Amino acid sequence: MAQILAPSSQWQMRIARNSAPASPMTAKMWSSLVLKQNKKGTAKSSAKFRVFAVKSENGTINRMEDLLNLDLTPYTDSFIAEYIWIGGSGIDLRSKSRTISKPIEHPSELPKWNYDGSSTGQAPGEDSEVILYPQAIFKDPFRGGNNILVMCDTYTPQGEPIPTNKRHRAAEIFSNKKVVDEVPWFGIEQEYTLLQTNVKWPLGWPVGGYPGPQGPYYCAAGADKSFGRDISDAHYKACLYAGVNVSGTNGEVMPGQWEYQVGPSVGIDAGDHIWISRYILERITEQAGVVLSLDPKPIEGDWNGAGCHTNYSTKTMREEGGYEVIKKAILNLSLRHKEHISAYGEGNERRLTGKHETASIDTFSWGVANRGCSIRVGRETEKQGKGYLEDRRPASNMDPYVVTGPTG
Fold first, then answer.
1. Radius of gyration from C-alpha coordinates of the chain
2. Contact (CB, 8 A) for 346 and 294
3. Could you tell me if residue 43 is left (phi over 0), alpha (psi between -120 and 50 degrees) or otherwise beta?
4. pLDDT tens figures, 313-354
5. Dihedral angle of Cα 92, 97, 103, 109, to the nearest 10 degrees
6. 3-state secondary structure of 395
7. Are strands 290-293 and 389-391 parallel, antiparallel or unpaired?
8. Cα 55 vs. chain centroid, distance in angstroms?
9. Which of 135, 146, 210, 388 stands the most exposed, by the fewest C-beta atoms within 10 Å?
10. CB–CB of 336/345 below 8 Å?
11. pLDDT tens figures, 80-108
12. Which residue range or ranges hold the GS catalytic domain (predicted)?
């Protein structure tokens, strides 16, 4: 039977709306037909006549399932590489597939490719070619087998990074010897909101209405408190399969909102892993018929926004005496507050209000165990005299290459 990734109630609603015109047969009617065919002797083997099992009266029969799950490895050495890149908005993900005919061990062994930049807002129509440079490889959890996902960045035909290519500059910074020697660790907490497809209203919320006030939903269980767990779990496992350094997940304060954590990741890996994890989440919500939102304040009013808190430490911070290094780093961050805010995501002013576990966008602050500050230091870091800091300002739609690299 096909696995259903969407919450049960919503999936049943989709089937009721969409499947009836295409296939008026019920499960009982189909079973009856199969029995009659078998009695007549027209289906002597499953190879000649196959029917997929259905789960309920509203079930659908998917004859493409076998083709989608074909294992190519016994028949060919070729595999499929899904080239992924960031589009012109700086937050949209694009991808396309190509066949690779020989085994590869490093991204540099993959061919460069091109795409129509005029269709993504990244090049003019009269000179639209943008070149994809493969940079990081992950296993493909959707196709399985030897197939891969490839994180790429983008260049002109002359080899210059295009303006939306933020990875190039971040990679330069992380390859600097001083930076390499400090082994910078990042732990990024990606929050997101799941929306109902047609109304763009959070999953589990009554259409045009509101659930009960915040409080019962954070890390909760139960049909009246947790909405979208199947999507979160499917994403968690798919990321682990792909090789994304995901370290956990939980339901968030606003119903229909979730979080997952990536890290600790070193240097440029932090950005690569966040972008691939976002792509995987987009694909899973696509299959589930749910809309993924990275808007930092998807619902106005007395509801939590969505951030991308970024935890950071260096080798010196993690060693004895590191707390003093952390405090110096916080001072340096305070001197560039406005510059950082401008690079921490679109619409962040709607989220950083000083309420709902945020600091005001206009004021820099820090504190120990204080979630209402710009920078939070954990109790354990204070106690041990070493550890890490948490920058709570980045929005859920921030570019991790920018936050960890040029302005990080």
1. 24
2. no
3. beta
4. 999 999 999 999 999 999 999 999 999 999 999 999 999 999
5. -50
6. strand
7. unpaired
8. 30
9. 210
10. no
11. 999 999 999 999 999 999 999 999 999 99
12. 163-408
Rounded-to-integer distance, Cα 68 and Cα 181, Å: 45
Q: Which residue has the tokens 């009246």?
A: 224
* One-letter amino acid for residue 206 of the chain: P
- What kind and span of H or E run contains 253? none
Classify the C-alpha dihedral 228-232-237-243 as positive or negative.
positive
**For residue 21, cis peptide bond before it (omega within 30 degrees of 0):** no
How many CB atoms are closer than 10 A to CB 149?
A: 25
Instruction: Kindly tell me the burial class for residue 77, based on how many C-beta atoms sit within 10 Å of its own C-beta (0-12, 13-18, 19 or more).
Output: exposed
State pTM to two decimals. 0.84
Coil vs helix vs strand at 220: coil
**How far apart are alpha carbons 225 and 215 in whole angstroms?**
10
- Residue type at position 26: T
Q: Which amino acid is at 33?
A: L
Contact 58, 15 (CB under 8 A): yes
Measured at the CA of 251, the angle between CA 353 and CA 394, to 5 degrees, comes to 35
Which residue has tokens 């999507």?
231
CA separation (Å) from 28 to 11, 20, 25, 39, 394? 20, 14, 8, 17, 53
Beta pairing partners, 195: 202, 291
